[in-house]
Amino acid sequence: MKTRRLATLGPEVSVIGLGCMGMSDFYGPADRAESIATIHAALDAGITLLDTGDFYGMGHNELLIQEALRGRDRDRALISVKFGALRDPANGWAGYDARPVAVRNFVTYSLKRLGVDHIDIYRPARLDPAVPIEDTVGAIADLIKEGYLRYVGLSEVGADTIRRAAAVHPIADLQIEYSLISRGIEDAILPACRELGIGVTAYGVLSRGLISGHWTKDRDTGRDFRSVSPRFQGENLDRNLALVERLRAVAERLGASVAQVAIAWVAAQGDDIVPLVGARRRDRLTEALGALELTLSDADLAALAEAVPRDAAAGARYPAAQLVHMDSEKGR
């Protein structure tokens, strides 16, 4: 397994990471035994970065990771945790809390659920509009000094917030959506990260399955996130699936699957970018790992740019009600 370093002074991680969210929340039921087997298979394949959030399944995901790591070398897994999202008993959302006192509280519960004595990367899931980012990062920095955390991360914030955060403490990475059809970070956010020597862990590299090559128009989303995602609705879905077929034509010429090409494209955008794959099953993980065998030439990248132009996706990446609260979307 090849590795990449997050940030100038950040940790060294596998060239792709495993996003564990879907094993507990947002994408319908998941098989617990298969989820744990998938984490085991990822670790055995050399994946070191496991990404979670304390609000995924209201702690279920962290408990799942604890079970998967039981009896294994803790130091072989680098755990990244998002915090701050508030939930209610109906599985709804109640805002964000990134006050310093809340940071310490969230860390305490995560350490217990994960069954570890430290968390490798800790990050607010979103910017709390009521709390200066300097205060949140300062609280994380204090916990690093105390030995409970190793690195500061950020998630879905804009260039100005990134700079303010980095002025308080070095930032290991920004976690943000990035894919062939979600390329907004290229304007200001990615340049800011590179200016400051901050890595990027890219989630949504398959756009929640939309550009995986496995999605079909008649597939039932049930009550998962895709049932409200603009890109999965009506004519938007038709247009986006047409893009997938264009992507499939390129993939077939390369002797790869659509998902493999989409993952390889993200990895090819820079050695400072680590794609997160949200595989919930071993077969999907095996397919994702196949992306590591692809080396995209300049001609391949040009073909992909022609097949899927930067602004070709129909529909926003989140519902409008969520986008308006996302710091990463401000100023566009």
TrEMBL record:
Keyword Oxidoreductase annotated: yes
InterPro entries the UniProt entry points to: Aldo-Keto_reductase, NAD(P)_OxRdtase_dom_sf, NADP_OxRdtase_dom
UniProt keyword Ribosomal protein, yes or no: no
All copies of domain NADP-dependent oxidoreductase, residue ranges: 16-307
Classification via Pfam families: Aldo_ket_red
SUPFAM superfamilies per the UniProt record, alphabetical: NAD(P)-linked oxidoreductase
Keywords attached to this entry: Oxidoreductase
PANTHER family: AFLATOXIN B1 ALDEHYDE REDUCTASE, ALDO-KETO REDUCTASE YAKC [NADP(+)]
Protein name: Aldo/keto reductase
